[in-house]
Amino acid sequence: MKVTTGARVWQAIVATVWENSQADNQRPMSYSFPADFAWGAATAAYQIEGAVATDGRKPSVWDTFSAQPGRVLNNDTGAVACDHYHRYESDIELMAALGIKHYRFSLSWPRILPEGRGVVNWAGLDFYKRLVDCLLAHNITPHATLFHWDSPQALEDLYGSWRSREIAKDFADYATIVARELGDRIKHWMTINEIYCFTHIGYGVNQVPPHAPGTVVKTVQEVWQTSHHALLAHGMACQALRAASPTPCSVALVDNFVPTIPIAETPDHIAAAQAAFHLHSTNGGIVEPALTGQYSSALLQQLGPDAPHIKDGDLEIIHQPLDAFGFNNYFGVSVRATDKAPGFEFLDFPKSYPKLHMPWLFFSPGSTYWGVRHVSETLNRPDLPIYITENGCAAQDELTESGEVIDIDRILFLQQYLRSAQRAVSEGYPLKGYFVWSLLDNFEWAWGYDRRFGITYIDYATQERLPKASAHWYAECIRQNRVL
Ligand code: FCB
Question: Does the pTM of the predicted model rise above 0.70?
Answer without folding.
Answer: yes
